[in-house]
Amino acid sequence: MFVQLEETRYCWFNGASLESERQFELVGTIMGLAVYNGMILGTNFPRLLYKKLLDEPADLEDIKETFPALGRGFQQLLDWEDGDVSDVFMRTFEISYDVYGEVRTFPLVDGGADVFVTNANREAYVRLYIDHFVNTSVRRPFRGFRQGFYKVCGGNALKLCRSEELELLVCGNSGEDMDFHELETAAQYDDGYGPDHPTIQAFWRVVHRMPWSRKKKLLNFVTASDRVPVKGPGQILFVVQRNGPDTDRLPTALTCFGRLLLPEYADEAKLEDRLTTAIEEARGFGLV
Q1: Do 63 and 47 contact (CB within 8 A), yes or no?
Q2: Among 38, 170, 204, 247, which residue carries the largest CB count within 10 Å?
Q3: Catalytic site positions
Q4: Residue 281's pLDDT is what?
């Protein structure tokens, strides 16, 4: 259904997918439900997807961000000053891409195979190429995806969003300015722990000392996402549950429930060592 772009690791629509349009509609519905319920998704779609959802036109900067090699080629074509580009690039008004091992070519204008790209028409060529590449070539899968998303989130309110704001609603933000004291205030506890328990107080002292990179790993370890909801860390479900008395075992997590299973370690140094090892060495499931 989707392909992962090698250079950026973004996911993009597979225009030649054999899946039905209803399957893409289902994916769009799931994303819409996540936005409606304020849930963060660990998707890796480019900003270009959100622009398409809001009917914002794609431009060369979007191509540079999503498909850097193609973007660099276009920029080189547009900036070329050493003679006419038709003598160097030898391009015609066509677009070609691989479809399950077969190269297919489509004209960008009537008789495109006979229309060479020149200095005079190169801007039109880039514009038509981008339109075909990001719209025409993925029309069927994107149509289903958009229909599913709009079933849940369609309406005038959506039109008030810009693409970057819609992306924040879906993915949250990087949280680099996140105040972990706010997360501490919103945290919940279970099985004997509470905000005044010595182990919990030691836990938060350890957390506040962590560098930002490790704090992100802690969030990912407990919640399966290092992103922060638009409304702030107070919206994160973060539960610290007692997992037995002092032990050499590492802390574990139930990411579906936002629960950190933390043993009652004997002292703060041991807690820091065990927690750091757990979050630095953790490996989980990922979706491509």
Answers
A1: no
A2: 170
A3: 256
A4: 85
Beta partners for residue 262, in sequence order: 242
Task: Please determine, for residue 66, whether its predicted confidence score (pLDDT) is greater than 50.
Answer: yes
- The per-residue pLDDT for range 80-101, each reduced to its tens digit, is 988 888 888 889 999 998 878 8
* pLDDT of res. 216: 85
Residues near 168 by beta carbon (within 8 Å), at least 6 away in sequence: 230
State the amino acid at position 170 in one-letter form.
V
pLDDT digit string, tens, across residues 271-281: 999 999 999 88
